[in-house]
Design a protein that fits this description.
Layout (H helix, E strand, L loop, with lengths): L2 H5 L4 H12 L4 H28 L10 H14 L5
Helix pairs in contact: 3-4
Length: 84
Amino acid sequence: MALIPFTNQFSETDEREWLKLYFGSIEEEAYRLLQEMKFVAMVREVAWGMFYSGLTKGEIHHDFDYYKFAESCVQRIEQGIYQL
């Protein structure tokens, strides 16, 4: 459920409208749960980045740095930003 607003960087207003359209109404509990699910998604992104960084250690990836991606996700978590 959190992937659409998470990956599309919805604003708070967009998230609340999306929840309203999805459930037919919006409750603060649903909004809070969405934020928690987005946090878990960010943690997953850190784990994914670290895993592939180790898996591809020594290989050259000119188009993507998995470790830097994981670092950027950690920084976003520290700032309270739970989206890509």
